[in-house]
Amino acid sequence: MTPDRAAGGPAHDCALCPRLAGFRTDNRTAFPAYFNAPVPSFGAPEPWLLVVGLAPGLHGANRTGRPFTGDYAGDLLYETLSAFGLARGAYGRAPDDGLELSGCRIANAVRCVPPENKPTPAEAKTCLPFLTAEIAETPSLRALLALGAIAHNAVLSALERRKAAFPFAHGAVHELGGLTLFDSYHCSRYNTNTRRLTPEMFRAVFAQAVTLRP
Ligand code: SF4
Question: Which atom of ligand 1 is nearest to the CA of 14?
Fold first, then answer.
């Protein structure tokens, strides 16, 4: 069993970010069959690795209710997790596909879908306590893998580290006092279509991270 992590996360109707709460309301009208709520983290209850994404995609996680599930970014992420033994079962682009994560959990820095995939700095800051609490409540963690600069900065803020001391760069590895942070470009369709991020580059980051697997 690989439970979602809903406990301690935001309320289903969290309205701390007025713009995102309004967007969610609009989407409940436009797409009534979608999940349309803060998307809970997904994965192992005692992970050693936390993958931190940006925010739910409108027609991906915001639709299905599971991070990275149902859109292009999830295809590459779950394929890569499977290749490194961090996921078991077949990824079926749906939350009832039976996929389980092994030693790994996926969270988002911002838990609600933002318009055009762009949360504001204020929204990232407002949602930060949920990531901070999740990290603090997961003593099994050894490593975090940030997908993109916003996720990277959220991890640094959650761990109260200075951003200037740990700049984001694809492939960078940061030692954060008992936790290691690995950086990757986000596995978005845009980044892969433009070859900013290739599957090989993505796998290379995970290859480094799994050296810390207990
Ligand atoms: S992004 Fe986070 S803080 Fe903002 S409304 Fe959603 S759950 Fe609440």
Answer: 8
Rg (CA), the chain: 16
Q: Which residues line ligand 1 (CB under 6 A)?
A: 10, 14, 16-17, 20-21, 38, 110-112, 123, 126-127
- Report the C-alpha dihedral over residues 68, 69, 70, 71, rounded to 10 degrees: 10
As beta bridge partners, residue 116 has none
Cα(153) to centroid of ligand 1, in Å? 17
What are the angstrom distances between the C-alpha of 25 and each of 12, 29, 198?
Answer: 12, 7, 36
Q: Are 206 and 84 in contact (CB under 8 A)?
A: yes
Domains and CATH numbers, the chain: 40-212 (3.40.470.10)
pLDDT (tens digit per residue) in 139-165:
999 999 999 999 999 999 999 999 999
* Global pTM exceeds 0.90: yes
- pLDDT tens digit string along 33-78? 999 999 999 999 999 999 999 999 999 999 999 999 999 999 999 9
CB 111 within 8 Å of CB 130: yes
